[in-house]
Specification:
Immunoglobulin-like; binds 2-acetamido-2-deoxy-beta-D-glucopyranose; alpha-1,4-glucosidase activity; carbohydrate binding; alpha+beta; 51 strands; 942 residues; 9-stranded antiparallel β-sheet; Glyco_hydro_31_TIM; 9-stranded parallel β-sheet
């Protein structure tokens, strides 16, 4: 969380606490008042001011080429110092992946004029060294009028990226690359931000990790310099293709789409200007290390991006898909015990109890408040959770209390041990960097230091001896600091008793300071006030506000300016490694607020400090879909809303919506009204109802998640990704799919009792079944259907052609896993269906045995062509699951003959068939599958 949103009038930092008021420098968190470059009418246009480059010394091989780029005129030094010579490397890394890298030719390690992201921090993908001629991506270049290049799709000739008519600008603190784009292009990604799924053609995407409670359209916690570009083409009568703007599509015509992805492997603050016919990518340091992914489907782009480049998402433990309850306003263990008792009394599923910073002793990490959160009571509480199949996840921040050396509160062992191991970030001169945060003045672990991971592990492990957590929630890791610079350096000793307190930070810095624009001095790097001012969300757009400042220094001399966006990424890795030791053998569960490209290989993410309003409920969908593209499928938001008071109607709708997100947690801000689902009768009912469905579908969700973990497929999906040939879906983000088979259309408007939704694929013969009625929807193609959706209901549809593996709902996932199986088969228009199931022990990193089942149904014998309706289950793997098969429900059945299971007749009293609804239910399978539903291959015929 950030501080509560209370109005603060004066531009100073306040600590509001009964016992102490900390002394901070005046204006401690206000920073300089900078005008962001994009709003500055006098800003230099680097495109007209700068000379570009000329390529020479071209060397071409089968796998790519290299060249030297020299400045094609006088240096412009627009926002830094021009680099006079660059090395260009173009590599066909795979048939569907191309790398274009531009780095300064002479990297002088003693002069930190520029910083190239090392592979030790952010690995590069392995090159398969494809042959240029085999790649679907083609690189061409020209020196006229200065060096420019194109990336085209070889199979179609589509120009994917084209810098013709622009100059490349490469300075120590400013890089600019411009490409033309087709009219009304569809771009997705470039997060993290609160925005619709499709970015639009007139938008500026600024990225720099920031502790900020989900304001719209600006940079927030995470950093993902990746976009997906989807283009639609009309298929003409002669088989040729014509590009069309998605929004002009006409339902009577035929279209196809092709997608590609672009990743800029660069960790500096960035700004991407999306304009009607071009994209301008700017960064304030590093190099140009671009990766193109050919697709041509979104699924191929996303999978390639993860599998080759950033890493596949971590597999999660089964329990993490249960329901999580959190609140930043639980004053003691008694309250948590009462919450658990309430869930039990109302028989609402509860899987995991969370602790926000309430539990800490004066907001110090790794220490419980001895009065309200004593260790012995905690041990008993967590023990009883574990005995009842539940878990406990507490928060830990990377902001570490710095004891006043002259005070009487200097006894803080985690700090002492960290100091001994020398693990804190420092000031440029070598003194410890002392910022401010929840505990008062704070220091920050330096993840570049070889001792830091071991210190972090040790602190978590020591504390974990008393508090047997099941996962760790890492917050404030942008990394947040509530004052500018090392504010504690001069004040910490003057403050007699600085210690835990609430504090608030002035956000109003606009009143006094005059605009400060730094004029670049050749050869000098100004990291405090970089000459190019990104439109950073914090007051004054100052990079030093709300975060550890850019000049904080790591043990290897690297400054935060160059690695700020990687702070959480490294902390997440450190936490992952620690959890593998503290909870040996089990998949670490980590929830991180700040993320970088690749954080998904270790952690889950939640949407941060959202607001309890309808807009933020809607925005949770595009936010989740964006994180599908970023390879962080374990995503959810603070259900019912974090800041501000929720209400019964909103919380009802939101509890139902979030039930279809992989990570399902209700969390609340201090000072807001309580919002556990039992606070209102209608919310209790709606939650129990929808959790019953979610829990029954957990085998489907877990299987999807395993697919994501092994192949880079997505869990929550945009309609446009599953139905790529329908341009009208390009911006749809008010409804979504869970995997390929379930579509959710939530009510997102206050007071509404109906919702409009589209049913994709109808014109191509797709059919959709209502999940509750189990009947086919009679809907038209390409139009909105209005669906009656009273409070307490959410629209849920099964796609024809699906087989959904299910179990019985229960109050905890442990009991779901021990219940009989069932299958829900939804036949397609031509009577077929398929699906799969993955089963393992649900927790181990390394599995001794796993189980996979493929399901296939058809209603025509493929060999004889005769009518024969069967569902086949083909089992592979040795994992022992002894739960029997309870029943099979088949939707869309037009006739029923003899029902047999592996040749054994199923008694007629075990069969229910409704000719009108076309639903066939086959019960009575328990006896036939006593040793387990997946003990052997089987066939069910009807
Ligand atoms: C683009 O956005 C800017 C700033 O929001 C606005 O002033 C301008 O009119 C927009 N241009 C177009 C073509 O929509
Ligand atoms: C990009 O497009 C914008 C608006 O269409 C235009 O003003 C600008 O000059 C273009 N940039 C370049 C480098 O062509
Ligand atoms: C470091 O950055 C802070 C915040 O911008 C600034 O106040 C301080 O003067 C800087 N220190 C040095 C040595 O540049
Ligand atoms: C993660 O941490 C481990 C252990 O410290 C280290 O070996 C590995 O290189 C790190 N991975 C990344 C991508 O930083
Ligand atoms: C359906 O309604 C939504 C608004 O709820 C609208 O954005 C969308 O364009 C409509 N789709 C069609 C196919 O009419």
């Amino acid at each position: 969380m950030v501080r509560p949103a209370t109005a603060v009038t004066s531009a100073v930092l306040f600590f509001v606490h009964a016992s102490a008021v900390i002394t901070l420098p005046p204006g401690a968190n206000t920073g300089q008042n900078l005008l962001p470059n994009i709003d500055d009418p006098n800003a230099v246009n680097a495109q007209t001011a700068c000379p570009g480059y000329t390529a020479t010394n071209m060397q071409t091989s089968n796998h790519g080429m290299t060249a030297t780029l020299s400045l094609a005129g006088d240096a412009c030094n627009a926002y830094g110092t021009d680099v006079d010579s660059l090395d260009l490397t173009v590599e066909y890394q795979a048939n569907d992946r191309l790398n274009i890298e531009l780095v300064p030719s002479h990297i002088d390690s003693t002069n930190s004029s520029w910083y190239i992201l090392p592979e030790t921090l952010v690995p590069k993908p392995q090159s398969e060294q494809a042959n240029a001629d085999d790649s679907d991506l083609k690189f061409t270049w020209s020196n006229k009028p200065s060096f420019n290049f194109k990336v085209t799709r070889r199979s179609t000739g589509d120009v994917l990226f084209n810098t013709e008519g622009t100059v490349i600008v490469f300075e120590n603190q400013f890089i600019e690359l411009v490409s033309s784009l087709p009219e009304d292009y569809n771009l997705y990604g470039l997060g993290e931000r609160m925005h619709g799924l499709r970015l639009g053609n007139n938008f500026t995407a600024t990225t720099y990790t920031a502790d900020n409670p989900d304001p719209l359209d600006v940079n927030i916690y995470g950093f993902h310099p990746f976009y997906l570009d989807t283009r639609y083409y009309e298929v003409d009568g002669d088989g040729s293709y014509t590009y069309v703007p998605a929004d002009t599509a006409d339902a009577s015509k035929n279209y196809v789409s092709r997608s590609h992805g672009v990743f800029l492997r660069n960790a500096h603050g960035q700004e991407v200007l999306l304009r009607p016919d071009n994209i301008t990518w700017r960064t304030i340091g590093g190099s140009l290390d671009l990766y193109f992914y050919a697709g041509p489907s979104q699924a191929e782009v996303t999978s390639n991006y993860q599998a080759s480049t950033i890493g596949l998402p971590a597999m999660q433990q089964y329990w993490t898909f249960g329901y999580h309850q959190s609140n930043w306003d639980w004053p003691n263990w008694d309250t948590l015990e009462q919450v658990v008792a309430n869930f039990s009394m109302y028989a609402i599923p509860l899987e995991t109890m969370w602790s926000d910073i309430d539990y800490m002793d004066q907001y110090r990490n790794f220490q419980n408040d001895p009065v309200n959160y004593p260790y012995d009571q905690g041990a008993d509480f967590i023990d009883s959770l574990h005995q009842n199949g539940m878990q406990y996840v507490p928060i830990v921040d990377p902001i570490i209390y710095y004891p006043n050396p002259n005070g009487d509160t200097a006894d803080y062992a985690p700090y002492d041990r960290g100091t001994e191991a020398n693990v804190w970030l420092t000031n440029p001169g070598g003194s410890v960097y002392i910022g401010a945060g929840w505990p008062g003045y704070t220091v920050y672990p330096d993840w570049h230091h070889p001792n830091t991971s071991a210190w972090w592990l040790n602190e978590l492990a020591l504390w974990g001896q008393s508090i047997k957590f099941d996962g760790i929630w890492i917050d404030m890791n942008e990394v947040s600091s509530s004052c500018v610079g090392s504010c504690g350096s001069a004040y910490v000793t003057q403050d007699a008793e600085h210690e835990a307190r609430d504090f608030e930070v002035a956000a109003d810095a606009t009143s006094t300071a005059s605009y400060l624009v730094t004029t670049p001095t050749p050869g000098v790097r100004d990291i405090n006030y970089p000459p190019y001012v990104i439109n950073h969300v914090q007051p004054g757009h100052d990079l030093a506000v709300g975060a550890v400042s850019p000049n904080a220094t790591h043990i290897d001399g690297v400054q935060e300016y160059d690695v700020h966006n990687l702070y959480a990424y490294q902390e997440t890795n450190g936490t992952y490694q620690a959890l593998t030791q503290i909870i040996p053998g089990k998949r670490p569960f980590i929830l991180s607020r700040s993320t970088f490209a690749g954080s998904g290989k270790w952690a889950a993410h939640w949407g941060g400090d959202n607001i309890a309003d309808w807009l933020h409920m809607y925005l949770s969908i595009p936010q989740a879909l964006s994180f599908s593209l970023y390879g962080i499928p374990m995503f959810g938001v603070d259900t019912c809303g974090f800041e501000g008071n929720t209400d019964e109607e909103l919380c009802n709708r939101w509890m139902m919506l979030s039930a279809f997100f992989p990570f399902y947690r209700n969390h609340n801000c201090i000072g807001s009204i309580p919002q556990e689902p039992y606070q209102w009768t209608t919310v209790t009912q709606a939650s129990k109802f929808i959790m019953g469905i979610r829990y029954a579908l957990l085998p489907y969700m877990y299987t999807l998640f395993h697919d994501a973990h092994t192949t880079g497929s997505t869990v929550m999906r945009a309609l446009a990704w599953e139905f790529p040939d329908d341009p009208s879906l390009a911006a749809v983000d008010r409804q979504f799919l869970l995997g390929p088979s379930l579509m959710i259309i939530p009510v997102l408007d206050q007071g509404a009792t109906s919702v409009d939704g589209v049913f994709p694929g109808i014109a191509q013969g797709e059919i959709w079944y209502d999940y509750y009625m189990q009947t086919e929807m009679a809907v038209e193609a390409g139009v909105n259907t209005t669906l009656d959706t009273p409070l307490g209901h959410i629209q849920l549809f099964i796609r024809g052609g699906s087989v959904l593996p299910m179990q019985q709902p229960a109050l905890v996932t442990r009991d779901v896993r021990n219940s009989p199986w069932s299958l829900l088969v939804a036949l397609s228009g031509n009577g077929t269906a398929k699906g799969s199931l993955y089963v393992d022990d649900g927790e181990s990193i390394v599995q001794n045995a796993t189980l996979s089942v493929d399901f296939k149904a058809n209603t025509t014998d493929t060999e004889t062509g005769s009518a024969s309706s069967s569902l086949y289950a083909s089992v592979s793997g040795d994992f022992q699951d002894t739960n029997a098969l309870g029943n099979v429900t088949i939707l869309g059945v037009s006739s029923v003959g003899n029902v047999t299971f592996n040749g054994n007749a199923v008694g007629s009293d075990s069969i229910a068939y409704n000719e009108e609804s076309k639903v066939l239910i086959v019960n009575g399978l328990l006896d036939l599958t006593q040793s387990g539903a997946w003990d052997q291959d089987w066939v069910l015929s009807w």
